[in-house]
Amino acid sequence: MSEDENLENAEATATETADSEATTEKPRRKGGRFAGFLAFLALLVAAGGIGAGYYAWLEIQKRFNSLGEDVALQQRSMSQLDKNPSFTSLQQRLTGSTESLGEEIETLRAQTDTLNKSLQEQQNQQAALNDAVTQSHNLITRSQRDWTIAEIEHLMNMASHRLRIAGDTKGAIAALQATDARLHDLSDPRLLPVREQLVDELYALKNFKHPDWTGVSLTLDRLITGLKPLPLKSQQQAAAEEPATPPESSDAEVSRSAWQKIKSSLKENLKKNVSIKSKQQAVALFSEQEEQLRGHQFLLQKLTSARLALISQDDDAFHRQLAEAVDWIQSNNNPQASKSLLDELQKLDQINLKPELPDISGSLTKLQSIERLRASAEDN
Question: pLDDT value at position 87?
Fold first, then answer.
């Protein structure tokens, strides 16, 4: 190649190199400009924020100062109101109104309590009325069998009361017979055990033996009217009733006993053949009559007390008075002269004024048990 061509190629190469460098520098310049713009924009935003915060702080300070002035103004106004007579009068009226309102509230509260109590009482009365209505409804709707059972229970209770309280066996028998008739009318085989128990109770009542209170009273009246002073025991009878001493085994005791027998026989012979009267015998006879009169009054008092115990049907007191009379006669009076009186008193002492009454509660217990079982079965 020639030198001219080489020069042209070199120039062309240099030109291309310069163009390529110029092309790469243009983007670099554009990127630097954009970053600078963003930094400037951020600076403006920061400055705006600082300015806005400062402005807000100024506004807050202004409001705070304004509020302080308002508070001071209110305080001055309040101090002026406290000094104002009309405000003071109004305050006093409000205080009086508050107290009066409190009293009215207490009065209303007391009235409210009273109304609550009255309402509670009315509720209780309403509940009682509801119970009464329920009972009346149950009575109205009760079946004929229930009415008959109620009548039977009433008759059984009446029979028990007549027997236990008044001792009236005839009234109890009449009530139980009416009960048996009602059971017969029901014709309920479940009540057969009740009728069986009822038959046993009627048999026991019909065979119950009452004491002859009238006969006992007449006997006591006769004994009181015919009672006379009874002769006392003689010394011989009293000695004869004393327990005999047991025989002694020694010879000296046997001889002493024989000597006492001889002395006793001599005294008896002297008493039969010799009669001595003295003042001492008169005194002894007088004291014996007084003892008879005292015994007569004692027996009369015991028989009268026994009669009073009979009237009140006090069996313990009756037998106690008779036992004391019998003990007195056996201890102090002649057994032959007082034998008839003693026998009659002992017969009276064997009488029981209050014998044990038959138990007629078994039939009622069985009836109630059967009815409870029937009611539970119907409920289930």
Answer: 62
Residue-level length of the chain = 380
Kindly state the tokens that stand for 317.
């007191």
Spatial CB neighbours of 295, under 8 Å, sequence gap ≥ 6: 229, 230, 232, 328, 332, 333
Tokens linked to 94: 């409000």
Residue by residue, DSSP assigns 299-337 as: HHHHHHHHHHHHHTT-HHHHHHHHHHHHHHHHHHB-TTT
Do 321 and 260 touch, CB atoms closer than 8 A? no
Helices 3-83, 85-141: crossing angle, 10 deg rounding? 90
With 50 as the cut, is the pLDDT of residue 121 above it? yes
Answer yes or no: are the C-beta atoms of 321 and 305 closer than 8 Å: yes
Least confident of 280-294, 313-327, 365-379: 280-294
| Site of tokens 């990127």 | 31
With H, G, I as helix, E, B as strand and everything else as coil, classify residue 350. coil
Question: DSSP of 232-297, one letter per residue?
Answer: BPPHHHHHHHSPPPPPP-SHHHHHHHHHHHHHHHHHHHHHHH-----HHHHHHHHHHHHHHHHHHH
Give the CA-trace dihedral at 192, 197, 198, 200, to 10 degrees.
Answer: 130
Q: Please say if the pLDDT value at position 260 is more than 70.
A: no
| CA nearest to 224, candidates 316, 289, 307 | 307
pLDDT digits (tens, 9 = 90+) for 184-221: 988 888 899 999 999 999 999 988 887 888 888 898 88
Distance of CA 60 to the CA centre of its chain: 81
Q: Taking Cα atoms as reference points, which of 295, 274, 374 lies closest to residue 341?
A: 295
Per-residue confidence band for 155, with pLDDT thresholds at 50, 70 and 90: very high
Residues above pLDDT 70, as percent of the chain:
71
Q: Tell me, what amino acid is at 48?
A: G
3-class secondary-structure state, position 359: coil
Tokens 């104002």 found at: 84
The Cα 154–Cα 141 span in angstroms is 20
Across the range 32-56, mean pLDDT stands at 75
d(CA 216, CA 345) in angstroms, rounded, equals 11
